[in-house]
């Protein structure tokens, strides 16, 4: 049977496999711009055009493309010229991680995307999801709005420059984790537990091994007994060691039981179906309060070496602290408010799922080809979708007893993270298989596996009690916090501790008390998620402050202004002050003024339909600019032989924009333009240590290391040039491509050659340990309308105040704020990972788990405070996590104002809003 299809103008006659979809057919032939986001037609990342019409290629049978013309994002540019829509996405920076961008481009460049569709973007873009941007940048790109500025020598900081990888993103040539070909690649699939808690009595792999193409089936008998944590921190002792690569006890539905490695994914899947496992079911518990109660089944009967606080009570971690005398403080209060608030599980939903490629480079045979290996010796390469390549290498080496020089970890461009990829969820098992078989191995999670095999945001139950005098002065503040960490304690203690830190420290109550618990249950594990616990507790506290203002008959803005910490104050949490945490710049007053200004000029209530209930509300939040205990970054900046520069820094790029900022910082220090600077990153072979891209550290930690390195190199260049030109250094000026020496121009290329001739290497190095830390502030305000007959909620206006210190890149930073608000709105209004009575996830697909689409997200007005931080590089502070935290309480307060009902459990679902209104009627 003959088969022919035209792909980007080229005839392809390879026959598709039986049942093969067009997405895999195209990727098998190197068209890597076609992405896998869901394999269910829900996200649009795989969109291509067939005869000019956009289709979701994951649903489109490859056989149907016979005789047709298929266009992928790689085929949009013609004769070296970008398609106008590609240029628009560059000009507006209509992307962050960029994993969804090809899908948007293929939708908006289709023949049928006319003026009518442009006028109705909510409907036109309903088939394309973006998790990063908040959609404003996408809309601006489609409408041709230009935001990027031209680079100017030595003046890059503070300008809206485009991302360096932008051209690759819009042309589909940016290389994400799986966008490469590996010869002899084997595919891994995981058999997962059907039980919430059980002991594995036996595993029979014989039938699986008889499946044609299956090479191995790995079970707990093949895995090391070593206990570790899948969470990655600079200091591994922050997390309990409670995990094995493959365990003989399973603790949640979805835990991996065995790994099948085969020539194809289909063969591996069939092998999984044929593995026979005998389980001994054990008692399970899914409610954290029940898990702490006497007589509850013990999930981790481990000793103190695992660093579990109270294993016998399923308490993974806990903190208890009191400053002052809380009971006396409540006795002194004229008004006291107490309530319990609950938040749900939320999935990170990064469009690129977890996964890795493991292969070998070099050779064991001395003298044979293997130049890529360390000293000609063979070693393992792990190409992973990770935020923490160095910490992953460290963990793999510890797990398998390997020296670090034998393991290389590389992160390509990462398709979204949000904290979810601060874990080691695939690399450990894939490396085990690769070492056993001595073959390259690929493990890529499906979308369903993201839901029941990765991690979620921690569900919290927070009881808050707050007291105040009649004039509004706070007298006491108390929290009881229970965080459900799930079956494993990765990030459990750290999230729990962080959640009650800045949330409690932002207010000046003389008496504070907290009892907080991170509790094991037999459900999918929770992990790091944007905000790291602060958003959950801030929801409770800011809702309580709003109710306290009502009891006092006081403006809630005035109540907060009366009690918030000021510029010279220290943040005091449940266990006192954190010594390295300082308010090194203060923009909270400006953030609150943004709310006041929004109220003063607001006319959005006029947009509400007749008869709808209208209300407004706001909330504020604070967050440390980096995690406690040290977050390290090392950077080098080098002069190259052509007079350009090279940055080597470990931070991974996944839409956080650190690459852009690092180039801007370097350009400013060296008086050059960003286009003369290259960046190497996220490869343990070519850059020095970096703790990782988490904890909002990309700018304030890695950026400071880059700044130190760039300044050091500038000093070296000027010092060498002064000696070379025999001119006092004070009379030299470093320009874009030369040094001006009293009228004489010495090019950087000439200086490089002169330095090399003298054996001098012009390289600057920089290090920053993440301490001391500053504090960033945010405020969020909403005006909403509620239909009392249906419970429908419309956002009439959204305004955000952000204190990011000196804003390195206003366009990019605005995008971080908008994306954070959009993601938080999803968690506020409809996102929730549901589990049944056995703890099994029942929302394991995008069509069951609703992500915010274009139609769901308002354009948020973003206002930056004018501050300059004394700690951060060039006055900058972090702004990637913090916008998330005040959104849910601000929305809850607006909903309370509109309906008169205090909603204490997120998300605020439409039917639940209607039911509450109906009960009140």
Keywords:
single chain, 921 residues, alpha+beta, 7-stranded mixed β-sheet, 5-stranded mixed β-sheet, 25 helices, 33 strands, globular
Structure description:
The protein has 25 helices and 33 strands. Strands 8-10-6-17-14-15-16 form a 7-stranded mixed sheet, sandwiched between helices. Strands 2-1-5-3-4 form a 5-stranded mixed sheet, covered by helices on one side. It has a 5-stranded mixed sheet with strand order 12-20-19-18-13, sandwiched between helices. Helix 23 (810-829) crosses helix 24 (887-899).
Q: What is the count of helical runs?
A: 25
Quote the beta fraction. Answer: 15-25%
Number of strand segments: 33
Major beta sheet, strand line-up? 8-10-6-17-14-15-16
Structural class designation: alpha+beta
The average pLDDT is: 95
- Seen as an oligomer or otherwise, the chain set is single chain
Helix content: 25-40%
**Uncertain residue ranges:** 364-374
Distance between the termini: 69 Å
Q: What about the largest sheet? A: 7 strands, mixed
Give the CA-based shape: globular
**Backbone CA Rg:** 28 Å
């Amino acid at each position: 049977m003959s088969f022919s299809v035209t792909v980007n103008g080229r005839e392809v006659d390879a026959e598709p496999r039986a049942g093969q979809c067009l997405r895999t057919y195209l990727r098998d032939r190197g068209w890597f711009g076609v992405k896998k986001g869901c394999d269910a037609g829900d996200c649009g990342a795989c969109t291509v055009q067939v005869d000019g019409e956009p289709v979701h290629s994951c649903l489109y049978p490859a056989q149907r493309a016979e005789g047709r013309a298929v266009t992928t994002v790689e085929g949009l540019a013609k004769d070296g010229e970008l398609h106008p829509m590609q240029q628009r996405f560059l000009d507006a920076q209509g992307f962050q991680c960029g994993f969804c961008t090809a899908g948007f481009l293929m939708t908006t460049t289709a023949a049928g995307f006319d003026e009518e569709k442009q006028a109705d973007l909510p409907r036109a873009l309903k088939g394309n999801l973006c998790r990063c941007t908040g959609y404003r940048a996408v809309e601006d790109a489609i409408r041709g709005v230009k935001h990027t500025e031209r680079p100017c020598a030595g003046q890059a900081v503070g300008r809206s420059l485009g991302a360096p990888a932008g051209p690759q993103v819009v042309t589909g040539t940016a290389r994400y984790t799986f966008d490469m070909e590996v010869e002899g690649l084997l595919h891994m699939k995981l058999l997962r537990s059907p039980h919430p808690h059980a002991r594995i009595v036996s595993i029979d792999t014989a039938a699986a091994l008889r499946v044609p193409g299956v090479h191995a089936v790995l079970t707990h008998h093949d895995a090391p007994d070593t206990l570790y944590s899948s969470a990655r921190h600079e200091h591994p002792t922050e997390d309990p060691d409670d995990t094995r690569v493959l365990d003989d006890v399973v603790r949640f539905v979805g835990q991996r039981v065995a790994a099948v490695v085969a020539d194809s994914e289909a063969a591996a899947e069939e092998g999984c179906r044929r593995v026979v496992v005998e389980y001994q079911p054990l008692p399970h518990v899914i409610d954290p309060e029940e898990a702490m109660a006497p007589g509850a089944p013990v999930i981790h009967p481990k000793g103190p070496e695992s660093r579990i606080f109270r294993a016998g009570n399923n308490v993974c971690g806990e903190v208890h602290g009191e400053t002052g005398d809380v009971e006396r403080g409540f006795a002194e209060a004229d008004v006291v408010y107490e309530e319990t608030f609950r938040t749900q599980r939320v999935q990170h939903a990064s469009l690129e799922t977890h996964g890795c490629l493991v292969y070998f480079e070099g050779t064991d045979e001395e003298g044979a080809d293997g130049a890529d290996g360390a000293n000609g010796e063979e070693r393992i390469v792990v190409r992973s979708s990770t935020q923490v390549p160095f910490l992953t290498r460290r963990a793999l080496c510890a797990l398998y007893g390997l020296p670090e020089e034998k393991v290389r970890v590389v992160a390509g461009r990462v398709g979204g993270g949000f904290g979810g990829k601060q874990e080691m969820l695939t690399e450990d098992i894939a490396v085990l298989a690769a070492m056993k078989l001595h073959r390259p191995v690929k493990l890529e999670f499906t979308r369903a596996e993201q839901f029941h095999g990765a991690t979620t945001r921690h569900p919290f139950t927070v009881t808050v009690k707050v007291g105040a005098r009649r004039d509004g002065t706070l007298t006491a503040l108390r929290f009881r916090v229970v965080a459900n960490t799930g079956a494993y304690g990765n990030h459990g203690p750290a999230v729990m501790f962080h959640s009650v830190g800045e949330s409690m420290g932002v207010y000046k109550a003389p008496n504070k008390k907290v009892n907080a618990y991170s509790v094991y249950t037999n459900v999918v594990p929770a992990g790091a998620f944007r905000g790291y616990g602060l958003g959950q507790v801030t929801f409770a506290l800011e809702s309580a402050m709003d109710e306290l203002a009502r009891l006092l008959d006081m403006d809630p803005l005035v109540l907060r202004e009366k009690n918030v910490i000021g510029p010279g104050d220290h943040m005091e949490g449940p266990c006192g002050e954190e010594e390295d945490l300082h308010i090194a710049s203060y923009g909270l007053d400006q953030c609150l003024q943004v709310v006041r200004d929004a109220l003063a000029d607001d006319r959005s209530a006029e947009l509400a339909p007749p008869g709808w209930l209208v209300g407004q509300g706001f909330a504020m939040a604070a967050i440390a600019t980096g995690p406690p205990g040290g977050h390290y970054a090392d950077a080098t900046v080098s002069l190259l032989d052509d007079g350009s520069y090279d940055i080597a820094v470990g931070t991974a790029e996944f839409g956080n924009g650190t690459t852009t900022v690092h180039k801007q910082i370097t350009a400013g220090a060296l008086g050059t333009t960003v286009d003369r600077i290259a960046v190497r990153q996220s490869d343990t072979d070519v850059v020095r240590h970096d703790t990782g891209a988490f904890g909002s550290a990309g700018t304030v930690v890695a950026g400071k290391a880059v700044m130190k390195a760039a300044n050091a190199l500038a000093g070296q260049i000027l010092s060498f040039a002064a000696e070379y030109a025999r001119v006092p250094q004070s009379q030299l000026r470093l320009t874009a491509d030369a040094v001006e020496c009293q009228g004489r121009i010495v090019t950087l290329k000439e200086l490089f050659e002169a330095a090399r001739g003298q054996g001098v290497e012009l390289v600057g190095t920089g290090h920053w340990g993440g301490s001391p830390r500053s504090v960033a502030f945010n405020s969020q305000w909403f005006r909403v309308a509620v239909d009392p007959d249906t419970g429908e909620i419309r956002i009439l206006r959204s305004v955000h105040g952000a204190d990011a210190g000196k804003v390195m890149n206003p366009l990019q930073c605005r995008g971080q704020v908008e994306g954070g608000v959009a993601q938080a709105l999803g968690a506020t209004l409809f996102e929730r990972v549901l589990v049944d009575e056995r703890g099994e996830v029942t929302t394991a697909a995008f069509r069951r788990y609703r992500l915010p689409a274009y139609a769901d997200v308002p354009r948020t007005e973003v206002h930056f405070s004018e501050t300059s931080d004394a700690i951060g590089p060039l006055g900058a502070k972090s702004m990637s996590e913090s916008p998330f935290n005040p959104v849910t309480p601000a929305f809850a307060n607006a909903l309370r104002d509109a309906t008169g009902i205090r909603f204490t459990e997120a998300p605020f679902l439409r039917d639940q809003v209607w039911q509450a209104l109906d009960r009140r009627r």
